[in-house]
Amino acid sequence: MNKIKLKKLAKFGFAALTGLFMAGAGVAGTFECKVKKSSMAKPSGFPSRTLTMIVPYGIAGGSGQVASAMAEAVTGHTGVNINRDHKPGGSGTVGMTAYMAAPADGYTVLEH
Questions:
Q1: In tens digits, what is the pLDDT along the chain, a chain of 112 residues?
Q2: Which residues belong to the signal peptide in this entry (predicted)?
């Protein structure tokens, strides 16, 4: 009796997860089409200089490795150089404070 209930529950769970994944894929595809058609996709002349990525954690940790991979991927796709500025300390507070103090010109991003 319990085996039958578990099989039904497993089938229902699989069907529910499949439905959620398919719904998410449809939403993501719609969003991507809207962004590609948008005039705000990429302002002309931006970026005209190197970007700075502030990483509020150390170089050797997981965030440092993710920041390095992201910077390499963006540089490979766009040709824009990204300087990684690691500011560890205070559970990320030091890096976030540095990010908030940076000018709001779009050339400084926070990897968190």
A1: 566 666 665 665 666 656 556 656 555 554 455 555 555 555 677 778 899 999 999 888 888 888 899 899 988 888 889 999 999 989 889 999 999 999 988 899 998 7
A2: 1-23
- Amino acid identity of residue 2, one-letter, is N
Which value, to the nearest 10 degrees, does the dihedral of the CA atoms of residues 13, 19, 23, 25 take?
A: 90
With a threshold of 0.85, does the pTM exceed it? no
What is the 3-class SS of 61-73, one letter each residue? CHHHHHHHHHHHH
- The alpha carbon dihedral of 24, 63, 67, 40 has a sign of positive
Six token digits for residue 69: 């991979």
